[in-house]
Specification:
Layout: H1 8-21, H2 30-45, E1 53-58, E2 63-67, H3 76-88, H4 91-104, H5 116-130, H6 134-148, E3 151-152, E4 157-158, E5 173-177, H7 184-194, H8 198-213, E6 224-228, E7 234-238, H9 250-267, H10 270-284, H11 311-324, H12 330-347, E8 367-370, E9 375-379, H13 382-399
Antiparallel strand pairs: 1-2, 3-4, 5-6, 6-7, 8-9
């Protein structure tokens, strides 16, 4: 789901490659953007209290929408606070994050969702990275134990949603969405921490199954694949949030890219690196991709070039590309870093990056949550903010 740490080898390699690239000052001022982000989140923190997790803002109604800890996005707000506290040295943001973690920790026992990576690793994972201690480690281990209760050893993947008419899965079926690739990083952490290979093995099986059944020949992705729970056979390849079953939903493409970058980092298996490179090729060279590399909400969205863009998909992609650039040859490194810089330059421009006190306290404008279900359309999204801050920190740390 996200790179909490880079290996020493990666740091040396990526920094060395950049030194050979050029010495011109980049167009992007990541430091300034992070400073402004910290100020905006300081404002946002005055509008909520623990148990009220910022979800989105409805500008037409001038009204915030928050969630409780059980919503899949609950980890992004404390995770973003921890990132910004780290980047900008703002103790108040750290204290705000810790207050939310105290409320969030009960979700470690939640076995009804596959999103525990988002919820617990983006939050407690960052907390443990910055200040390792048993309390955080115990929460993360229990979260991993809860997550693997959803693993089906026949299908060799983790069930995303419970079967329901709305996701087109019967009682004998299990839906798996591409988003689930982002929750595997928690399992790798659990194996390294505990020494138990079962978590790692499940993550690898899930990634292999997804690689086989979610991706088409051009490396575009289905959003949802439904499996028979008894035989493991694929029964449907459909969408819930994309434009059509056979289209490529932009955030799904970003989840896939990010997920396979993580898989390569954690296993060093070249097949995952190749998968990530192929997905990046699809994203960066899609015929209707705008020059600023902020994708339409679906690559085959009706109404292109007048369709809505999705800033959240762009932020996720940028963060993945910065890391991916450290694992490839110099030519691709230049391409991926240049693409990430283009994305981040656009996302931190006034068109997308909100002024302090506006946009409900969120950073990014123009996200698209679920177009078919008409929710969170052209709005800020907490995960868009999270991956924007992560991408800026990666860029600042490695490229400047």
């Amino acid at each position: 789901m996200k790179n909490l740490t880079f290996s020493i080898t990666f740091l040396i390699t990526i920094t060395g490659c950049f030194a050979q690239k050029n010495t011109d000052k980049p167009k992007l001022d990541a430091y300034k953007a992070l400073t402004e982000a910290a100020a905006q989140y300081t404002y946002l923190s005055t509008t909520v209290a623990p148990g009220q997790y910022p979800k989105t803002w409805h500008d037409d109604k001038q009204k915030a929408e928050n969630s409780d800890s059980g919503w899949w996005c609950s980890g992004f707000y404390p995770g973003t606070l921890l990132y910004l506290a780290e980047a900008e040295g703002v103790p108040a943001l750290k204290q705000e994050a810790l207050a939310f973690l105290e409320d969030l920790k009960k979700e470690q026992y939640n076995t009804t969702t596959h999103d525990l990576g988002f919820m617990m690793y983006c939050s407690f994972g960052n907390a443990e990275r910055l200040n390792p201690k048993k309390e955080y480690e115990d929460v993360l281990m229990q979260s991993a134990k809860s997550l693997i209760t959803r693993y089906n050893p026949v299908a060799k993947c983790i069930k995303s949603w419970d079967s329901a008419p709305w996701n087109h899965a019967s009682a004998d079926e299990m839906p798996v969405i591409i988003d689930n690739m982002m929750n595997l990083e928690l399992l790798f952490w659990a194996s390294k921490h505990s020494g138990d290979p079962v978590y790692r093995d499940i993550a690898i099986n899930h990634a292999n199954t997804t690689m086989k059944n979610h991706f088409r020949a051009d490396y575009s992705s289905y959003h949802e694949v439904v499996y028979n729970i008894h035989t493991g056979k694929v029964t449907k390849q459909i969408t819930n949030q994309g434009a059509a079953d056979n289209s490529s939903w932009a955030r799904g493409q970003a989840w896939g890219l990010y997920g396979y970058v993580v898989m390569y980092r954690e296993t060093k298996d070249v097949k995952y690196l190749e998968q990530a490179k192929h997905i990046a090729q699809y994203i960066l060279h899609y015929p209707t991709m705008p020059k600023d590399l902020i994708p339409y909400w679906d690559y085959q969205a009706p109404g292109v070039p007048n369709a809505l863009r999705d800033s959240s998909a762009a932020a996720i992609t940028a963060s993945a590309l910065v890391e991916l650039g450290g694992y490839v040859d110099t030519k691709l490194t230049d391409e991926y870093w240049s693409a990430a810089e283009t994305i981040l330059t656009t996302l931190t421009s006034p068109e997308y990056f909100a002024k302090k006190g506006t946009n409900g306290g969120f950073l990014l404008k123009h996200g698209v949550g679920n177009m078919p279900n008409k929710t969170e359309i052209d709005t800020p999204l907490s995960y868009g903010d999270y991956y924007l801050v992560e991408a800026l920190m990666r860029y600042e740390k490695i490229l400047l």
